Amino acid sequence: MTIHVRLTSSGEISLPLELRARLGLADGGSLVLEETEDGLILRTVTQAVDHARALARQYTADDPEATVDAFLKRRHRESGQ
Question: Whole-prediction pTM value?
Answer without folding.
Answer: 0.64
